Amino acid sequence: MAVKLEPFTPPDIPAAIALHSSVTAEPASEAREYEWQLAVVNPHAKIVKATYDGKLIGAAGFLTHETLGLQWTSPERRAWAGSAEKELEDRLEEAREDVLHGDYDLWHIYLSFLAPEYRNTSAWSDMIAWGLERADEVEKRVYVQASASEKAMYEKLGFQMKTVVPLSEGDRYLMLRRA
In terms of domain of life, where is this protein from (predicted)? Predict the structure, then answer.
C-alpha cells in the first residue's frame, strides 16, 4: 500500500500529538492539543496528513498569506513565551525581519514531521509539495525555518537559504521559495 495524502481533520489530533511528541521530544500537553484544535478550524491554515495503511505517519502545516503575519506579530502570541523561549523568539524574529522586511504576503510552513520509519519514502516531500502547489496557485512565496537536517530537502524543492541563525539546539536556516 502506498503513502496517501489527505486533509487533516479534528479526529487526527490525538494521533498527531502522540507522533509529533515522539518525533520531536516535545511533551504532549493540553496547550498542544488546544493549538491543534485552533489550527484545524483556522481558515487560513492548510494542514495535510500522510497516512500509510490508514495510520497517520506525518503532517505538514501551512499558514496562508491571509494570516498577514499575525503568527509572528500578534501580542498574544508573544505573551505566553517564557524567558528562554522569548530570547529564542527574539533572535529568530530579528533574522526573519532581515529576510522578509515586513512583507508577509507569503505562505509559511510552520509544521512538518514524519515518523522515522518512513524517512526513506517520498512522504515528507509529497506533503511539502502539496502545500507548495497551493501556494503556487495563488502565486505566493513560501517561507520556512529549516533545521540542518531539512535544509537540503528544502533546497531540492526550490527554496533558497537567506540567513542562518545559530542556536544552542542547532542552527535554523531561514529559507524562501519564490512564487
Answer: Eukaryota
